[in-house]
Amino acid sequence: MMAEPAAATPDDLIKQAEALRSAVGADFHDDLMLSIYTDAARIADHAVTREGAARGRFYLDRTIDRLVTSRVWGFPMMLFMLLAVFWITITGANVPSQMLGDFLMGAVYDALHSVAQALSFPWWLAGFLIDGVYLATAWVVSVMLPPMAIFFPLFTLLEDLGYLPRVAFNLDRLFHKAGAHGKQSLTMMMGYGCNAAGVVATRIIDSPRERLIAIITNNFSICNGRWPTLILMGTIFIAATAPPALASFIAATSVVAVAVLGIFLTLAVSWFLSRTWLKGEASTFSLELPPYRPPQILKTLYTSIIDRTLIVLWRAVTMAAPAGAVIWLLGNVTLDGVSIGEHLVNLLNPVGLLFGLNGVILVAYIVAIPANEIVIPTILMLTMMVGGSSMVQPGVMLELESNTEVYNVLVGMGGWTLLTAVNLMLFSLIHNPCSTTILTIWNETKNLRWTAMAVFLPLALGFGVTFLTANVARLLGLV
Amino acid sequence: METRTLDTLSRHQTAVVTALHSDGAERRRMMDLGIVPGTAIRVEMVSPLGDPVAYLVRGSVVALRREQAAKIEITLQPAEETQP
Amino acid sequence: MTVHTTTSHACETCPLGTNAQLIRLGINVEGWNYVVALAGNPNTGKSTVFNALTGLRQHTGNWPGKTVTRAEGGFLYQDERFKLVDLPGTYSLLSSSLDEEVARDFILFGQPDVTVIVVDATRLERNLNLVLQILEITDRVVVCLNLVDEAERHGMTVDDRALARDLGVPVIPTVARRGEGIPELLAAIHEVASGAYKARPHRINNHNPALAQAIDTLAAQIEARFEGLPNARWVAMRLLDGDERILEAVRSGELGILARGAQPVGSALQQEAA
User: Does pLDDT of A261 surpass 90?
Assistant: First the structure.
């Protein structure tokens, strides 16, 4: 033993430590870990008894794992799960959506107008509050609540069961080849709830290069605010091309196709970035595959409806109310006898048509920068404003209680085609992140360049893709 | 007994780790997962695309990419199943 | 502080009574008497334990890396206010990744009154790695042996008494998602926080005599310099491992603060680094 000075100075201590450190050599860490694990194994052995019997669960877990990660069934099962989730969502949401629509846009809407009349509100006040703020909000609730109340619990069940790490395990090779971190598949899946949450989740990636890739590509995970747009387009336009018996299946397939395209774009853009501005090799990682846990169905239902559905809905409503006001003003404040909204739509229409979209959709995406949830209500209100008459008549939205009528409005008044719907789905997947996500990206990177890239790269890509589909469709004479 | 690396282990084979050839953070991460010399390790499942591979280590299932597994030296266990 | 108040109701004095004495305070963590850190491997049900104690509903997905940032909540038990800090799930505290640093810094510099380590009973051996490391930093530990129902389903029984004997700290078997064992966990947290429980924590047996000697030598000097430091052995191990953060703490005298606060009341250093 060395002599022990009463109280060495910190510098002495450090010198002493350095000296001892070079004496014990570089294996200190290894030796320590080995010692810890030797102790851990002894203690665990002491405490754990394994019975030969009752091992059914272990083998069941392993059997499920072999199936969901099997060479033959691994990928088909992932597709099947996705399809099943959307099929249940689409078929299940139909009836409640209709009922909510009848109630909110029928009975409640009429009642509100009678109250306004009884209180002799001026026309502009009743219009602003009821046809603007209220209608947009009611629309968001009846369109979003039923599918979200089905989709979130289903997704949460898969999550709690332990399926997501298996998906990450199956997809890892692709991420590896794309030069991305293996945990990016997990942050990608977080993005399916909310991109801002997905961006925050990239903190689990240690390498700054790979973390930036994960941040920039997270936008290709379809978030809560975008699912309703896809589900609605799939339901009323894509499914219309199929025989009624297959309609829900085709609608679900189209939504899954967009989600899969999103995964493909995530990989492709990651690959591109890791070979250009964010050069480098994928770093190593390890992923633990947790045991399957029987999910607590009731608790999952409760928490996913309260925590996810209602929070998302509340966010949508808080965005929809002011957006409704903005849209009403756009439609009712006139310049040279034409509403501002119509001016804007007419201005952007030629550009929109070039990309197989239209002016209304582009204006809607500008209004919806704070939240994608309000894209559909904005599109509908603007379409009726511009296509129907120069002014929104009270009661026009009454027509929108069912999907068929939404279809009629879009096709009849808006001049939509199948191409418009397909390109809206594509553009919904590939465009700038919402303002919350942009702010989160800024907070996480504190770098203007990467934030700008995260905004404009998907936007440019979105215009590129829609331009391509529009022109191919026109060349082939499909539209 | 034959010495080789973990990536050459095939499905359901069990081996014992003899050395780690990685260093720095990666080496530490392997050790945190319980992969130290003397640890029994077994191939549990292989990803549909062949990489990564998931191993059973100290009761948990951990997926490693092939390049990481190649840096772990093992010796094969005798044929009989010793894994709990 | 008073631990026992005389009352006629047996339930109120019996620490194993019911959850009735637990008042979940959600995110309200004002004016706490004790700080409790919640540590554990990823995927051990840490967030479920957090929710059970605080009444919050932090989402608990079954996949690693779910909790990236620290969550805080509070609860009231036996008239004491506890602040509960959910640390990121980590396998170890030695690899210096970001989440490990957050967890390590809080346990070391935040000086929680109690550190609850949530352990997965089905993967005990791997989980003990973290437990043994934390026991070198603090002996104010309660091990929450979670998922015992899963272990049973896998044909395993874990003898929590043997485990408690070997580790020298309380071990409480729980099924947190069904609330089983939470009253006992609360009682143990309270006992350790109030100092009623005297831990005899397990020390890592270094199998290499040269290393063991180096640790002892350095630890003795650290103790001499920073009198009352509760974890000189651990600091010695970190210095021998070349841990920059700890080296810096020695250099700047930050460790001295820990030594002075040898009786952690949770107030010494609330704000953890980074």
Answer: yes
Contacts with C60 from chain A: Cβ below 8 Å = 160
Interface membership of B57 toward C (CB under 8 Å): yes
Q: CA angle, corner A454, sides to A452 and A459, nearest 5?
A: 95
Does C86 have pLDDT greater than 60? yes
Determine the average pLDDT of the residues in A220-236: 87
Count CB neighbours of A133 within 10 A.
19
Q: Which of A21, A39, A292 sits opposite C205 (nearest CB)?
A: A39
CB C221 within 8 A of CB C229: no
Question: What Rg, from alpha-carbon coordinates, does chain A have?
Answer: 28
Q: What ipTM goes with this model?
A: 0.89
When pLDDT is cut at 50, 70 and 90, the band that residue C110 belongs to is confident
Q: Verify cis geometry, omega within 30 degrees of 0, for the bond prior to A76.
A: no
- For A421, counting Cβ atoms within 10 Å of its Cβ (0-12 exposed, 13-18 middle, 19+ buried), the class is buried
**Model confidence at C265, in pLDDT bands (50, 70, 90)?**
very low
User: Would the CB atoms of B33 and C91 count as touching at under 8 Å?
Assistant: yes
Q: Residues with Cβ < 8 Å from A134, sequence gap 6 or more?
A: A109, A112, A324
Confirm if C83 and C36 have CB atoms less than 8 A apart.
Answer: yes
Amino acid at C259: A
| Residue with tokens 């104010």, as numbered in its chain | C140
Tell the CATH topology of B3-76. SH3 type barrels. (2.30.30)
| Residue extents of the structural domains in chain B | 3-76
Q: Looking at beta carbons, which residues of chain A come within 8 Å of C207?
A: 31, 34-35, 38
pLDDT on residue C61 = 54
Neighbours of chain B (3+ CB pairs under 8 A): A, C
HSE (CB half, 13 Å, CA atoms) of C264?
29
CATH T-level fold of C10-194:
Rossmann fold (3.40.50)
Nearest to A139 by CA among A401, A370, A360: A401
Tell me the per-residue pLDDT of A98-124, one tens digit each, with 9 for 90 and over.
888 888 888 898 899 899 999 999 988
- Match 């064992």 to its residue by tokens: C181
Q: Which chains have 3 or more CB–CB distances shorter than 8 Å to chain C? A: A, B
| Rounded Cα distance, A183 and B52, in Å | 13
Q: Which residues of B touch A284 (CB under 8 A)?
A: 22, 26, 29, 65, 67-68
- Spatial separation of the C-alpha atoms in residues A55 and A69, rounded to whole Å: 21
What is the nearest CA distance from C14 to chain B, expressed in angstroms?
37
**pLDDT one-digit tens code per residue, B12-71:** 889 999 999 988 888 888 998 899 999 999 999 999 998 899 999 988 899 999 889 999
Contact A14 C57 (CB under 8 A): no
- Whole-angstrom Cα distance, residue A167 to residue A190? 13
Distance to chain C for B75, nearest Cα, Å: 22
Answer whether C74's CB lies under 8 Å from C59's CB.
Answer: no
Within 8 A of A39 by CB-CB distance, chain C residues are 128, 132, 202, 204-205
Subunits that touch chain A (at least 3 Cβ pairs < 8 angstroms)?
B, C
Distance CA C62, CA A290 (A): 7
Domain limits, chain A: 74-282+292-475
Torsion-angle region of A337 (φ positive above 0: left; ψ -120 to 50: alpha; else: beta):
left
Question: A259 near A222, Cβ under 8 Å?
Answer: yes
CA distances from A465 to A266, A360, A433, A472, C191 (A): 15, 19, 17, 11, 64
Q: What is the DSSP letter of C69?
A: S
A97 burial type by CB count under 10 A (0-12 exposed, 13-18 middle, 19+ buried): buried
Q: How far apart are CA C52 and CA A103, in angstroms?
A: 39
